[in-house]
Each structure stands twice: as structure tokens, then as C-alpha cells.
């Protein structure tokens, strides 16, 4: 169940955004697709760490899981969602901006993994 939620939830969210904007929106500027997929990767890593913490309670405490969810799920995911919503709503075409936003999401992925380790 944990693996299915880890793959299906971020995949469903990513596919719904892809379907809402249409493939031509992402094909015209390739960095848009990488930004969307990096957001899905962030959610997948967050679910992986959360389910690992829940499935192995002797190794992790409840406080660690709560901090992880407050740090990763609400803090960072809200920031990433706001950034991506603004980028997709304004339909930014500048590759430098999109590459910078994708790098920002990659930084968040590294931060959540570093928090876990």
C-alpha cells in the first residue's frame, strides 16, 4: 500500500496538471515539463520518507514524523505549489526562469533527504 501511494498520488497529480494544460503547453518550452516532473519527484520522495518513518516506528519517533510532515509537506510543498502555479498561470517562456525554478525544486528534494538522513 505504501508503494502504491508513493507512486500513484504524485503520478495522478502530475498527470492531472499535464492534462489540464495540454501536451502542447509543455512541448513548446521543454523546461516546463521538467519543472512539473520535479514537483512529482519531490512528492514521491516525501511520501517515501513518510511511509518509511510510519512503517518502522522503533527507528523513528512520532515527533520526527510530525516534524517531517510540517517541514516537508506543509512548508515546502506550499512554497513549491505556489511557485509552480504562478509559473504555469503566467505561462513563463524564459528558459532561465524555468531552469532556476527547477533547480529550486531540486534543492528542496536535497533538503528533505538531508533532513531525513
TrEMBL record:
The chain crosses the membrane at residues 30-49, 97-116. Keywords: Membrane, Transmembrane, Transmembrane helix. Pfam families: DUF7378. It comes from the Eukaryota. InterPro entries: DUF7378. Residues 1-117 form the DUF7378 domain. This is DUF7378 domain-containing protein. The lineage of its organism: Eukaryota, Viridiplantae, Streptophyta, Embryophyta, Tracheophyta.
